[in-house]
TrEMBL record:
InterPro entries: ACT-like_dom_sf, ACT_dom, ASB_dom_sf, D-isomer_2_OHA_DH_cat_dom, D-isomer_DH_CS, D-isomer_DH_CS1, D-isomer_DH_NAD-bd, NAD(P)-bd_dom_sf. The lineage of its organism: Bacteria, Pseudomonadati, Thermodesulfobacteriota, Desulfobacteria, Desulfobacterales. Belongs to the D-isomer specific 2-hydroxyacid dehydrogenase family. Pathway: Amino-acid biosynthesis; L-serine biosynthesis; L-serine from 3-phospho-D-glycerate: step 1/3. This is D-3-phosphoglycerate dehydrogenase. GO terms for biological process: L-serine biosynthetic process. Residues 454-526 form the ACT domain. The gene is serA2. CDD domains: ACT_3PGDH-xct (cd04902), PGDH_4 (cd12173).
Length: 526
């Protein structure tokens, strides 16, 4: 497995890759997009921070890539839908840099209020601007925190320690939760009207781009100060420039920019603006945390399939993986069996878990069923990341239900598929601890080991039918490894499941089909 680190990663993370048997790591930072594209096809894993842009164009060349790991939080530089479509897991390391980033927001607020950058540069230029650089206290001032997630809540807590009055707006956190944490919950309008300082801590998304714009500034107090340590563009830069030059906003502190690096823009050149080059997460502690986390997560995924902190696929911890492992195998085989039993356009897949599944997150098994089902049907490479997306793209409705009781089995999985022509049902269970069995195909009960070269034969339940199958295969030197006969409820028909040591060639399948008591023969590869 080869891993490429394309942005600066803490040395400890690189060492972890180097020390891992079976993993080779290359560090190539600051590559122009075309150069990165020319080498990405050689790698199974990619480690990034905010500089590398993981675009659809790059992913097109990433034929081997299995995982993108972001040493940090924001994933706005990754085309997540494009990665998902290609079956690439995208993971970040939430939590590792949140204290550091919150401390940076607080540092910027204090530096802004007390003119620290301007004091430094004027003193270095030989001046002593005491009067001009008078600041103000933050004590008892109102801080409006927009976004009460991991970083916003730490900023609120630190500001409380500085004896500020903190008000919070976050539409996805209940007022009770905000109040329980000891802060005042506010609407966005109230926050704009009351705050002396506004700091944003929301992700960059369609809904948050330009959140602080012309209309928002118009609602704010005169002389408000604005801090953006989240993402460029959440505070609209052109509108901020106008709000500062018109005197509405007194000052602003920016760590992030609409384009990075931004160059010398009119906004940055304003005396009222202080800025840092996306330093929010840049401390030794945070970079150690995120480097260790990303290296650990990527190693675990590449070596064991354990998924931690992925944003485009459910997490599967080692423990869950162990518990689910037999069901994953069974699910894949059941999907694969269904695909071969009815190869007509799929409309719907209904997955039912009956029995002792209540405590388990079965979504990875459902994905594995879809993977098994879609793989024989389509050309594209289907995997456990993109199977649900491919199903959705093809207009296949997928539903999953979990029920408590099963009459005959401790755990029963049923996959019902609805095609344009028919409905087909397959049920499976785990025997003992690990043995997958298909136990029902529509009305037929059986106990079939779903693996290898197999065939399903429908025949009339009359003497000689089974013998004729055995002799036909024998005549062609095909050894039967397992044979199971299930009887239809009407007693007239049988379903025969055969497992053979070698595949049954097409001409032999045809010969079987022509036997007098045989109705259908479906060869299977499971
Ligand atoms: N400057 C830097 O170096 C760093 C910047 N960041 C940025 O900070 C952002 C926040 O990080 P975390 O706090 O860890 O994320 P988080 O996911 O814990 O919190 C985000 C919060 O924003 C809230 N939110 C979403 N839409 C909102 C809206 N329209 N209005 C108000 N609130 C809204 C969510 O409910 C959530 O509580 C990241 O997405 C990243 O872009 C993160 C780390 C370092
Ligand atoms: O973690 C984040 O979201 C950050 O913005 C940190 O960015 P960086 O890793 O310092 O380029």
């Amino acid at each position: 497995m080869r891993v490429l680190v394309s942005d600066n990663l803490g040395e400890i993370g690189i060492q972890m890759f180097q020390e891992e048997e079976g993993i080779e790591v290359d560090v190539k930072t600051g590559l122009p997009p075309e150069e990165l594209k020319s080498i990405i096809g050689d790698y199974d894993g990619l480690v990034i921070r905010s500089a590398t842009k993981v675009t659809e164009d790059l992913l097109e060349a990433a034929t081997r890539l299995k995982v993108v790991g972001r040493a940090g939080i924001g994933l706005d530089n990754v085309d997540i839908p494009a990665a998902t479509k290609r079956g690439i897991v995208v993971m970040n390391t939430p939590g590792g840099n949140v204290v550091t980033t919150a401390e940076h927001a607080i540092s910027l607020m204090l530096a802004l209020t007390r003119n620290i950058p301007r004091g430094t540069s004027s003193l270095k230029a030989g001046q002593w601007d005491k009067k001009k650089l008078q600041g103000r206290e933050i004590y008892n001032k109102v801080l409006g925190v927009v976004g009460f997630g991991k970083i916003g809540s730490i900023v609120a807590d630190r500001a409380r320690g500085l004896r500020m009055r903190v008000i919070v707006y976050d539409p996805y956190v209940t007022p009770e939760q905000i109040e329980k944490a000891g802060f005042e919950s506010a609407s966005l309008e109230e926050l704009y009207q009351k705050a002396d300082y506004i700091t944003v801590h929301v992700p960059k998304m369609k809904e948050t781009m330009g959140l602080l714009n012309k209309d928002a500034f118009a609602q704010m107090k005169d002389g408000v100060m604005v801090i953006n340590c989240a993402r460029g563009g959440i505070v609209n830069e052109a509108d901020l420039y106008d709000a500062i030059t018109s005197g509405k906003v007194a000052r602003a502190a920016l760590d992030v920019f609409e384009t990075e690096p931004p160059g010398a823009t009119p906004l940055i050149e304003l005396e009222e603006v202080i800025c840092t080059p996306h330093l929010g997460a840049s401390t030794r502690e945070a970079q150690t945390n995120v480097a260790v986390a990303v290296a650990d997560q990527i190693i675990q995924y590449l070596k064991t399939g354990t998924i931690i902190n992925a944003v485009n696929v459910p997490s599967v911890t080692g423990e869950l993986l162990k518990k689910l492992s037999p069901f994953l195998t069974l699910g894949n085989r059941m999907g694969c069996l269904q695909a071969q039993l009815c190869n007509e356009p799929l409309k719907e897949v209904v997955i039912e878990y009956t029995g002792d599944f209540q405590e388990l997150d079965m979504s990875p098994v459902s994905t594995e069923i879809l993977k098994g089902l879609l793989t024989p049907m389509i050309q594209d490479e289907v995997n456990s990341v993109n199977a649900p997306v491919i199903a959705k793209e093809r207009g296949i409705k997928v539903t999953e239900t979990t029920n408590a009781g099963s009459e005959d089995y401790l755990n029963l999985m049923t996959v019902r598929i609805v095609t344009t022509e028919t409905t087909n049902m397959v049920s499976g269970a785990i025997f003992g601890q690990y043995e997958p069995r298909v136990v029902k195909i529509n009305k037929f009960r059986l106990e079939m080991i779903p693996e290898g070269h197999s065939a399903i034969i429908h025949n009339l339940d009359k003497p000689g039918a089974i013998g004729s199958i055995g002799s036909t295969l024998g005549n062609h030197d095909i050894n039967i490894a397992q044979m199971q006969v299930g009887q239809d409820e009407d007693g007239e028909h049988n379903i025969i499941f055969l497992r053979t040591d070698t595949p049954i060639p097409d001409d032999v399948v045809e010969e079987l089909r022509n036997l007098p008591l045989i109705k259908t023969v479906t060869p299977l590869e499971l």
